[in-house]
Automatic annotation (TrEMBL):
PANTHER family: PEROXISOME ASSEMBLY PROTEIN 12, PEROXISOME ASSEMBLY PROTEIN 12 PEROXIN-12. It is a multi-pass membrane protein. Component of a retrotranslocation channel required for peroxisome organization by mediating export of the PEX5 receptor from peroxisomes to the cytosol, thereby promoting PEX5 recycling. The retrotranslocation channel is composed of PEX2, PEX10 and PEX12; each subunit contributing transmembrane segments that coassemble into an open channel that specifically allows the passage of PEX5 through the peroxisomal membrane. PEX12 also regulates PEX5 recycling by activating the E3 ubiquitin-protein ligase activity of PEX10. The lineage of its organism: Eukaryota, Viridiplantae, Streptophyta, Embryophyta, Tracheophyta. GO terms for biological process: protein import into peroxisome matrix; protein monoubiquitination. Belongs to the pex2/pex10/pex12 family. Pathway: Protein modification; protein ubiquitination. SUPFAM superfamilies: RING/U-box. This is Peroxisome biogenesis protein 12. Residues 21-303 form the Pex N-terminal domain. GO terms for molecular function: ubiquitin-protein transferase activity; zinc ion binding.
Length: 393
């Protein structure tokens, strides 16, 4: 199993199963991104984004039901040429333990298996997504309360320090706001906040265990849902892929034959049914194209975003040119550590910001206070433009 790349046998590889499992998430990201872009010009599409979980679950419900009915596979599995088969194990009377590969028969899915497959593919992920959003909201609320304090405590303190009339008014307001529904919602949020991490860790751990066992060829079930339903995912044969279109047309023709009523009503129902099937086919094709376009755009914009967000390192600007020494100003000594005013080693070196030359603090303070200019460049200056230098620290 570890060295199987594909095309050998009916057992799908781990990478095929993982790709089929990740396809709905990529599809949802593609749809969310596309609707978000269109919502910039069509504001009413923001309502779709507000109900993102319900919209996507309804879409996947239609796709998964149609795919399981026509191909005995989920929407993602059908794109990778995979099929679901019911596992039937026959145990011989002589040996209660069946040998590996003996007594295992694969057959088509039954009606209850298709229904439960839709539950595991659509309903359970929907509830998990809603629990995840409730958990995140409760977590943000508790984090905000820990940082900024609890608003209820502030209200109680305000009531304590206020007068009797104010306490009565605030008490009536609190009684109006604290309804049974709000209390029940808060209690549910607390239960979800305490239980969801354990449920999430258990589901992820079980999923990882099944995937590891499947990778090591220790089980034929890729997930707990497939194991609970008794379903193996197999690679479709060439004949099955060729018969898929004929099977779909046969199912649709049988549904048209079941139409009841007058001829004009049958014609109208048949036309509506044909339009629905055509729209469904176009939707499947469009969703497949959306996934690939989203992946390409994700790769393209991710590289562009990395380039834009990467810090641009520019070379340091060149230093400004040295100020010109005035002809009537004090000449600069050859030794840069000598103060031009006292011709001694600088003590408490300070700079005149208007020119940049360094002097003793006492010398330059006295000179600027008396002449209001730089002694070297004769540029106007005041004592507020003298800054001490701490280069010797």
């Amino acid at each position: 199993m570890l060295f199987q790349v594909g095309g050998q046998g009916t057992r799908p590889t781990f990478f095929e199963m993982a790709a089929a499992q990740q396809l709905p998430a990529s599809l949802r990201a593609a749809l969310t991104y596309s609707i978000g872009v269109m919502a910039l010009r069509r504001p009413f599409l923001h309502k779709v984004l507000d109900c993102e979980d319900e919209f996507f679950s309804l879409l996947m419900l239609v796709l998964e039901t149609h795919s399981l009915r026509t191909t005995d596979a989920s929407f993602a599995e059908s794109l990778y040429g995979l099929r679901r088969r019911a596992v039937k194990i026959r145990v011989k009377k002589e040996d209660a333990r069946p040998k590996s590969g003996d007594g295992v028969q694969l057959s088509g899915l039954e009606k209850h298996q298709r229904t439960l497959s839709v539950v595991f593919l659509v309903v359970l992920p929907y509830f998990k997504s809603k629990l995840h959003s409730i958990y995140n909201k409760e977590r943000e609320a508790r984090l905000q309360a820990s940082l900024w304090g609890n608003g209820d405590e502030t209200v109680e303190e305000a009531e304590y320090f206020s007068g009797g009339d104010a306490s009565l008014v605030s008490g009536e307001t609190l009684d109006a706001e604290a309804t049974i529904r709000a209390r029940l919602t808060k209690k549910i949020q607390k239960i979800v906040f305490s239980c969801y991490p354990w449920l999430h860790a258990s589901s992820e751990g079980m999923s990882f265990a099944y995937q590891l066992l499947y990778l090591l060829d220790a089980t034929g079930f890729y997930s707990f849902g497939l194991h609970a339903l008794g379903i193996h995912v197999c690679r479709a044969t060439g004949q099955e892929l060729m018969d898929t279109s004929s099977r779909i047309s046969k199912i649709r023709s049988n549904e048209r034959d079941r139409l009841r009523g007058p001829p004009w009503l049958k014609t109208l129902q048949g036309a509506l049914l044909s339009c629905a099937y055509t729209m469904l086919d176009y939707a499947q094709t469009g969703l497949i194209a959306a996934v690939f376009i989203f992946k390409m755009m994700e790769w393209w914009y991710q590289s562009a975003e990395e380039r834009m967000s990467a810090p641009t390192v520019y070379p340091p600007p060149p230093p400004p040119p040295a100020p010109k020494v005035a002809k009537e100003g004090i000449p600069l000594p050859p030794d840069r550590t000598i103060c031009p005013l006292c011709s001694q080693m600088r003590a408490n070196p300070s700079v005149v910001t208007i020119s940049g030359f360094v002097f003793c603090y006492a010398c330059i303070f006295k000179y600027v206070s008396q002449y209001n200019r730089c002694p070297v460049t004769l540029m106007p200056a005041n004592v507020d433009q003298i800054r001490r230098l701490f280069h010797d620290m």
